[in-house]
Amino acid sequence: MLNHLTIIDATGELGALAGHMLAQLGASVTRLIPAAGDSADPVWNRDKAALSLDDADLPALLSKADILLRNGPLLGVNITDYPRLIDVLLTPFACADRPATDLTLMARSGLLHIGGDPDREPLRLPGQQTYALGAIQAVIGALTALHARKDKGQRVTVSAYQSAVLANYREPVMWDWAGKVGGRQGNLLVRGKSGVNQVWKVADGWVTWALVDNPGMMRAMVALMHADDMAGPLAGVEWENILVADLPQETLKEWEKVVGAFFATKTRAFLADQSNRHGMGLSAIDEPQDVLNSAHHRARSAFVPFDDPVSGRTIRVPGPLFRTNREDAR
Amino acid sequence: MTREGPQKGPLSGLRIADFSWVGAGPRATKDLADYGASVIKVESAKRLDLGRLSPPFKDGKRHHDASAFFAITNTGKQGVTINLNDPRGIEVAKKLVAWADVVVENFGKGFMDRIGLSWDILKSIKPDIILLSVSVAGRTGPLSDLRGYGNSAAALSGFAALSGWPDRGPHMAPFAYGDVVAPMMATVAVLAALEHRRVTGEGQHLDVSQVEPMMLVTSDCLADMQRGIEPRRGNDDPRMEPHGLFPCRGPDQWCAIAVRDDADWQVLSGLSGINDTRFTTLEGRKRHCSDLCTSLATWTRTQDKHRLADRLSTAGVPAEAVNDGRDVFTDAELERAGHYHRIRHDRLGDCEMPGPPLRFSDAGIHLGPPPLLGGDNRAVFVDLLGMDPGAVDELTASGALA
Question: Is the pTM of this model over 0.90?
């Protein structure tokens, strides 16, 4: 889609995903490697040409580039010398000048506070999610500026911290509007006055499902339970006339006990298949190995082989960002 | 029709017909609206966007125009009501398609075909139209019929299994991360398709799932698993030690500290008074991490989390307080960065909404109010699409535009 674009990627760990995404969309991406090396996981740099920052002819590169991705100043470069360039500056903070890592940004954003179990310390999201969020926002900024470019590029500044705060879409707004501060709820999804369980043990592993305000999904699940005569009090619920989010916790616990007893008699595959047929909103929780072996992901060519320099082996990594009818037709 | 602040938005002039609801579609079109695109959100009073039913509500009173959750997800859009189960409503929807550059939907698979708004029909109305479909697992493949929420995406992408402590089962983040990442990817997809259309004149149908972006953002974890490295590792990082949360003064108060290298440790050692040669190198700190973390926790336990974080950061060691929603809302960094934008809304009053995390040197970002249910029916149907006012009244009364 973006085969006509040229990108210079001078970012490190914070931002490597941005260049990778643009490369996945077809752009020619050249990575500038600083003398001290680059700590980003090689999965984020796999579709980029690479040049040593010390050896690169930056004026020649930037005069041909559409987009520059960077985390800070490029020594000896005056960006205004390249008026068509879209200059994307991705930093931990918009204003504060303090050191940061993915963990500390996540802590400050509030995303850490709500993650994990009540009996332990807060828990981070896996991987480097504040870096990922900042990188995707950098791509959005770059392509938005590209859309606006007539003859002249512009600078886009992106805050990884604010990207993480935006992802924490509920907690600041709950304080602002309801004066409530959330906490760690384990696998409970708290909405309104009550919390509902999201992770269930089944006969051979785990599934995710929750009592939610979607009457169609609730009716489909109860019908399945009813077929085994295991629906109990759920059989009589008129889902259109209640709001699950407002039910007392005791009622939900009683209902969830019934659901849990039913789930314990079923396998992941059975429940997932029934959900797919009848729209119950349930999914099997796949371990990473299940994900790599998934027939669904295979059908969508979601993974591609990668010669991994870390392990020295060919591993499989996520491929296209999304599908389009153009590419499917090729 | 474009909502503009003092400086024109970078997407000014772009037109979006938004049939999406709840989170995964509306967050993408919110981005586009905040950057200046004209977004018309199509809803129906007969089938309310579930976001309108989500708390918190203004003054705690439930009303379809009073949800702050809906508001932050739909800033800057205009709102119309069209009953998509009524063929007369579909004819009006087609007029919107003819007006639009981009059509967005996140219905179940096949719904757009059944109501007469298939990809082929959209193309026949506007040959270079861009259609964005957002779904849990994508529009092709064995799970393409799956209906669900962000928790399904977390389950099928491995995100839930990668989350948690090594000694416990999967953890489901208490918010729909798929509803965060997928709309961002959807925005990327639309912008890339617009650039492709600018160059080639071609539209296209974009199929964005929630699952695939969640796999993308955990590519490093999935790679680690294949490298034989435990991917579910709580707060640990194989390249840093200490790297975790340390207790501070007060109940459930924590400070995140990340020691990136030996130089960081020297600074922290000097501040904390923990002088132990076992901790000089990363290897030593990893081997004796239990003793190290116990000593460090003893030092942090009596300190205020914010002051400790500031003290360590000033000395060059990455550290931040583990903030709750109140801490985040009142963070001076967000105030300085202009993160919150003031809007005026008929039901919510004067209030502040979070805006995008980026700034343009030569373009403005302006957040308009979220739409009232059907609040822009006349402006859109009569003024924009040129429909006869009497016909609109009749269609409204008979339920086609409701």
Answer: yes
